[in-house]
Specification:
The protein is mainly α. The chain has one domain (3-109): Phosphotransferase system, lactose/cellobiose-type IIA subunit (Methane Monooxygenase Hydroxylase, Chain G, domain 1, Up-down Bundle). It has helices at residues 3-31, 35-64, 73-109. The longest helix has 37 residues, at 73-109. The chain is elongated and about 65 Å long. InterPro entries: PTS_IIA_lac/cel, PTS_IIA_lac/cel_sf.
């Protein structure tokens, strides 16, 4: 893998990791009832995942344009990180909605 592709893979892993971490922190904030913090963290997760997606899209577009992209373990690893971050963000969004619903039901019971 050449230096340019190595840098892309590492950037993708970094942005995806930031997104996944923010999603996990958002779930914890939602569990603690801090919905504003959870929403802020989910926005950070989305922004980081968007950056990762931009790298992925540019990479695929370059390959479709004829640029050689070596299929390496690092490339596969970077895609795995991207998918994991995407799934984690989806779960965190669902978790936030569920925690809000639980809070609403608790308030109705009081």
């Amino acid at each position: 893998m050449d230096e340019k592709q190595l840098a892309k893979a590492m950037q993708l892993i970094s942005f995806a990791g930031d997104s996944k971490s923010a999603s996990i922190r958002a779930m914890k904030a939602a569990e603690d009832g801090d919905f504003a913090e959870a929403e802020k963290l989910l926005k950070q997760a989305h922004d980081s995942l968007h950056q990762a997606h931009n790298i992925q899209t540019a990479w695929m577009s370059a390959e479709m344009g004829g640029e050689e992209v070596e299929k390496s373990l690092l490339l596969i690893h970077s895609q795995d990180h991207f998918m994991a971050a995407d799934i984690m963000m989806t779960v965190a969004e669902k978790q936030l909605n569920l925690q809000k619903e639980i809070q609403s039901l608790r308030e109705k019971l009081q």
